[in-house]
Fold this sequence. Notes:
With 506 residues, the protein is mainly beta. It has seven helices and 36 strands. It is globular.
Amino acid sequence: MKQNAFSGEVRMTLRRSTIGLCASAAIVLSSATSVQAAPPRDNLEPNRQGETLGEVRVLQEPYHKGVRVIGRNEILRRDSNLQLAWIDHCAYVSSTPVNFLGFATKPNSAETSGVAVVDVQDPAAPKLSMLLRDPGAMFAAETMHAIEAGGRRILVAGAYAGGKPGAKPDDAAWLEIYDASDCGHPKHLAQVKWPENVHTVTIGPSGTRVYGTAIDPFTGKGGVLILDISDPSHPRYLGKFGITRPDGRTFEAAIHEISFRQDERRIYAGVLASTDGDLNAGIGLFPPTVAGLGPDAGGIYILDNGDIVDGRPDPRLKLVGTVPHGGWHSVVPAQIGGTPYLVGAGELGACPGAWPRITNIADETRPARAGEFRLAMNRPDNCPPMTETELASGGVIGRAGTATSHYNDVDSSTQTRLGLFNFMWAGLRIADLRDPAKPEEVAYFRPGDACTGHVRYRPESGQIWFTCAASGFYVIELQPELRARLGLAAASMPAARTRSAPAKRP
Length: 506
């Protein structure tokens, strides 16, 4: 049911505040320095799987197994990188608000904030082409997505948390809409002010709608805000939608992020809590606890989105199935051996942190847990004694260095072999998901700082794109012998000749 009809502001503008980086050539060049690559070899992490031993800095030589670095760009050596989106040969990397949860602490944080546009035509030497610095793009953090669909390319970026630390759910936030036909130089089309703060944004597979999530973790309130961008220069707000049960009852839900079935008729929503009491039964939402925010909190809603797709009057998001404890922060669809699955996880927290869970949704009304992927440091027996802060917060706040899931991705939503999981300071972990009951880690890349956002897998080359807070944007690839063992096609692009030199830091 539509809630809170929007009477807010929509401003169309062709004005764009960007930083052209030609004038900063010296900085850009220093961010993409390349050296001759050594023959590929593993540099294994020295202790337990994912154990950081307090290492929360960019390592001179990352720990890695089964992969080799193709290229890297340090993105002005800022420490605010969070989310990754992409179109064709371009990557988009968002930044957090200044001094946000340990991110963006450097003196240059304000001047380097914005969506970094990275040209990856040459994967061995990714180039920073510009920063998008419109109000919604300045501190987008998790509020960014891009898609190529319906014959066009669209990038959207919004002001996460209202663009400042500590924003309230009712704070309005800007959303910028860009034409990314020239993916390396997005053109600003429109600016929208949401009626309330939007946490994440996802463009539907049709490319004609933007879905924003509203989440209040301490009340269970929230929902999905939808924007029609059939004409992206003149977006039209459709409303805020709750969750409707088969009996017609509609309630609110604190939704973190959503993903879609390819036809857009199914939404997979990571949900922390709801006002219906169906999740976290018997657990109070405030004050915050691990039970209400940790790896077993919340779950996933499977929603029928047909009313929106078909343009029916009085549209509703209809609840089809629920996956308790399926992962409230990030959930993506997968298909393994012809069977549909969801891969989801919570986020953050003290050790043992959060980790991906795999759910069989062959029967959407009765989803069944199939397996999970844990690192050694996601097992309580391996956790170190809690710090004073962790004890005081009851484990809700974890120390820097904790191995904990943030965003989940797979190599293909229709022919899934690999899970691509950013585990913050434990780095990017790559798992063989062909047996969902027993996922097996086959590779990892751990640069020392927190690796945070979504991950792109390019099947034609076997290359993987991801970003980390301070070390920047990476292109890596699976080693050929690993690709062969996993039954992946041989890479169609030549092996890299160069890799980025590690930065010298004070």
